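We close this part of the discussion by returning to an individual protein. Part of our work consisted of pairing the sequence of a single chain with a tokenised description of its backbone. The amino acid sequence and the backbone structure tokens for this protein are reproduced below.
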Amino acid sequence: MQRIVVLNPKGGSGKTTIAINLASYLASRRHTPVLMDFDPQGSTLRWVRKRRPAQAPIHVIAAFERDTRTTRAFQLRVPDVATHVIVDTPAALDAHHLPEMTRDADKILVPVLPSDIDIHACSRCIRDLLLVAKIRREEDRIGVIANRIRRNTLTYQSLIRFLHTLGIPIVATIRDSQNYVRAAELGMGVHELKSYVAQDDVAQWVPLVEWLARPAGAAPSAPGASSQDAGQAVGDGEPVGSGGDSQAVAVRAQSQALIGA
């Protein structure tokens, strides 16, 4: 069973959209995904409840709810048949909770929007994952998703340059498309829409799925590489190295330069 955590403390980055569409993809491929909704807004839970009986089943756990009649472990239990657990984390997640939230995570997806505010928030998130949650770059467990992108814009180029400096792979570039909105209203994902309607959107998920299928610790993508461009690196600057204490020093230096910490 693979555990995938979708995480960014910045609200509105598209965590729920990524989580539900990933679950939709897996279910449509005859896997048995479980969505674990930690967001008090309950958007993932509502999406699952919109699904029709004829659609591929997706199990959901309302992790944001507290049931005093049962233990927390029992409430968060995952069905034995589950092949994937996708964790939709809440906004404003405190850095001290990152180790618990990312414990046993095979992959961690960090969606980020192309704006100065979101880039600022993403830099803090990556820093905390590396320094607080102790996720190492060479494990290839962290992947960034450039979300709601309009290519050939200055904000997009700025985002790509920033991600390149972090030494973290860009595992998908998702365009700004109304198909995600339409699909969510129907309790569907873009992979379940008519192929002639969403083929461009579906194609953008191929490199993400390939990265998720790669075992942690396997040969990582080039830092900052954009899988949207079929493996061709984009952006300027040199990637930051990894390893031991030098990694921590490098991350702190980056954080001070990027966010003025």
Q: What stands out?
A: The CA atoms of residues 17 and 181 lie 9 Å apart.
